[in-house]
Amino acid sequence: MTDDATTAAGATGTLGYEQARDELIEVVRRLEAGGTTLEESLALWERGEELAKVCRHWLEGARARLDAALAGPADSQDSGGGTTAATETATATADNG
């Protein structure tokens, strides 16, 4: 199992989010089921940590892209001296509240 985990860990960088998530689910399932040796459990744990890092990387990248997309129109308004969408929303909420 250790050799498989080491080989798989080398390929972790090429995994997409869904692949890493699905494999992580399987690793957790196997750990929760028990019946593995200590060495196998440690290898599964290490693989799970690597997969979690891959998922976290993808999610952080997605969050950055969303933040950039949401900030894009506000930035263009700011350069023209206008108000930002967040300021307009806060103002509208305060006026209605």
Distance between the termini: 60 Å
* Element string (H = helix, E = strand): HHHH
Number of helical segments? Answer: 4
Biggest sheet overview: none
**How much of the residues is beta strand, in percent?**
under 5%
- List the uncertain runs: 1-9, 81-97
Overall 3D shape? elongated
Radius of gyration: 22 Å
Brief digest:
The protein is mostly helical and 97 residues long. It has four helices and no strands.
Strand and helix map with partners:
Elements: H1 2-11, H2 17-33, H3 38-79, H4 85-96
Helix pairs in contact: 1-3, 2-3
Keywords:
single chain; 97 residues; mainly alpha; 0% strand; elongated; disordered N terminus; disordered C terminus
Please provide a written account of the structure:
The protein has 97 residues and is mainly α. 84% of the residues lie in helices and 0% in strands. It has four helices and no strands. Helix 1 packs parallel to helix 3 and helix 2 packs antiparallel against helix 3. The chain is elongated and about 55 Å long.
